Amino acid sequence: MSTARTVLETEEHQALRAAVAALGKRYGRDYMTTVIREGSHTDELWAEAAKLGYLGVNLPEEYGGGGGGMAELSIVLEELGAAGSPLLMMIVSPAICGTVIARFGTDEQKQKWLPGLADGSLTMAFGITEPDAGSNSHRITTTARRDGTGPDADWLLTGRKVFVSGVDMADATLIVGRTEDARSGKLKPCLFIVPRDAPGFGRNRIDMELHAPEKQFELVLDDVRLPADALVGDEDAGLLQLFAGLNPERIMTAAFGIGMGRFALSKAVEYARTRQVWKAPIGSHQAIAHPLATAHIDLELSRLMMQKAARLYDDGDDVGAGEAANMAKYAAGEACVKAVDQAVHTLGGNGLTREYGLASLITASRVARIAPVSREMILNYVSHQTLGLPKSY
After folding, report:
1. What is the pLDDT of residues 52-61, one digit of tens each?
2. E strand or H helix at 10, and its extent?
3. How many Cα atoms sit within 13 Å of 73 on the Cβ side?
4. pTM metric for this prediction
């Protein structure tokens, strides 16, 4: 595939992309499928990526990070995905949790968590989705209340979360709860760091058809007692802090989808160049070549929007980044699904064999469409926020 995309990147970004691609190539899809089959985790790849400074590339230098942003971290995830070895926890731990703590955490929280998130020795999950809330974050019912009065009073957290990735390997989970506004009585979102061994913090694994090293869990919080300093940031700035984590989540999900789509497309192109049924390779036929070309175009366009979103976010334009991040996630999700589908179709029966490593992506590719927000909710966002059309809900 063409490397023309690099002209829009700095020399540092090009070097990072090449270095991560080399790391990914050493592991590849076979490593990932083996890990999944054995029911283990990507510990070796995670540790090496951490050692090379890739996991914390977006975190502040003073806490052991690379001092970069979403532009750099998205390159890391995309290239690992393009090699067939995406690290889903990168979306959660350094991108969402690391960013939120770096921007809004106390000095103590930053000192406790950021160095570990940067060097890979600590991981943090993120819990927002609830069984009855779905995409409607305003219906979140997980509540936090003070046990006593004064700023040093403990918090008691109660509620349920679903589809929380990697809780079994995470040292803590950043939970989105709601507290009552003393003046209005309305519930407002707040973020809490919940250690994995906190009493009352239970988890149940969800049996998924999706095969990935990172498992999905339902969380049950039964009056989980947390110290006052478990609250991240200002109690009255919950939405601002929440979206500071959700925009990176969308950017990184776009990187996840683009990387996966590139991996599938590369397999299909290689096959179409060499597979010969009649007198010429099947890739010489437009019925094969044109859909693959279209998939490549869609992936490249998705990357451009992802790069725009990352740039806006890293420049501090949260509003502009919100629109671009949603668009990037939407475009990448669609491009990923189409690329995987076309790749499998190009290989025919071989596309469903374990040897080529594409069949499992049929399910995995839909993650980029569904999570962390559905494509329909993104279309709602664009129609309301960008086009100014009235809401239907």
Report:
1. 999 999 999 9
2. none
3. 38
4. 0.94
